[in-house]
Amino acid sequence: MELGPENRLLPEVLCEELWRAAGAELVEVSKAEFGEALETIGARDNFGLDQDKHANQRQRETFWRALHLDELATARGCALGRESAWRRFLAHYREPLTRAAVEMTGSAALGEELASALYSELFGLTEREGRRWSPLLGYSGRGSLMGWLRAILAQRRVDQYRKIGRETELGEIEPAAAVSEQIEPERLEDLRVALKKTLSEVSAEERFLLSAYYLDQHTLDEISRVLRVHVATISRKLKRATERLRKQLLRALIARGLSRRAAEEALGTDPRDVDINLRKLLQKSEGDPIPSQEGEG
């Protein structure tokens, strides 16, 4: 979406201030290019307001100032193919992103393959309508760039899982990422409340499965022996549980006033950043028919 000069909402003075604050010049992003990015993101997200609301000048300025400006500049520079932006990106994100990929896959080889494929995609080796295109154009700056990258990585992990066809592992389920950033306190509070509400509504069986697999690190085979059902059944139940949990969390976050985009970004937060006792929330209720497991505390 490209806005003409007559439709610009970003004042020239504010544009220059934000461009300088972002250090955009260091990653070869011009003031005009950065201003266009800010305008496009603001219009696309309606400046963080509900779609039926109209943002005034103060609300627009508040929205732009709250963005992760330096990370947005880096992402935009990479999407535009600027060499200095890619040097900064690789210096800050390549190692933690590779670690996250290895942890997601549980394999150094698969993790490095996953990360390498994502680097190629981010670099913009694909084309749309005859033009070089990078997913980094979709980064809004509203959440941390690493959180956004983890979410993209998790999506690509699903594709990798389907390609490999590993039926006894849960590649579709997004595990905790390997790296944590500083998350906005209000976003963490929204996520904390949504988690408490959502997990309180999870069935006894699902609480047991989630706790056994994610907290106690039991394998699917170990869980299947405890419950005396086939491994494939456990895999399907866990997949359904996590998908349902994600949908319920998304609804709970939106109910707290987050836009859908902001809610999806919040779901990319590393659970270790959230000050919440997941084990306590997933503990069995009285009269729970699910059997105990070794190592559960």
Short description:
With 297 residues, the chain is mainly alpha-helical. 60% of the residues lie in helices and 2% in strands.
Report on the structure:
- The chain is mainly alpha-helical and 297 residues long.
- Among the domains are: 5-74, no CATH class; 185-282, Arc Repressor Mutant, subunit A (Orthogonal Bundle).
- The chain is 60% helix and 2% strand.
- It has 13 helices and two strands.
- It has helices at 12-22, 31-44, 57-65, 69-79, 83-105, 108-123, 145-164, 185-200, 204-215, 220-227, 231-255, 260-266, 278-282, and strands at residues 126-128, 131-133.
- The chain has a two-stranded antiparallel sheet with strand order 1-2.
- Helix 4 (69-79) crosses helix 5 and helix 5 packs antiparallel against helix 6 (108-123).
- The longest helix is centred in the last third of the chain and has 25 residues, at 231-255.
- It is globular, with a radius of gyration of 21 Å.
- Residues 1-6, 165-183, 271-275 and 284-297 have low confidence and may be disordered.
Enumerate the strands of the largest sheet in spatial order, edge to edge or round the barrel: 1-2
Order of H and E elements: HHHHHHEEHHHHHHH
Rg over CA atoms, rounded to whole Å, is 21 Å
The coarse overall form would be globular
Instruction: Note the beta-strand portion.
Output: under 5%
E-strand count: 2
Largest sheet, strands/sense/barrel: 2 strands, antiparallel
Helical fraction: 55-70%
CATH topology of the domain at 185-282, what is it called?
A: Arc Repressor Mutant, subunit A
Which CATH class of the domain at 185-282?
Mainly Alpha
Task: Decide which structural class fits the backbone.
Answer: mainly alpha
The helix count comes to: 13
Tell me, rounded to a whole number, the average pLDDT.
77
Q: Which ranges are low-confidence, i.e. pLDDT below 50, for 5 or more consecutive residues?
A: 1-6, 165-183, 271-275, 284-297
What is the name of the CATH architecture of the domain at 185-282? Orthogonal Bundle
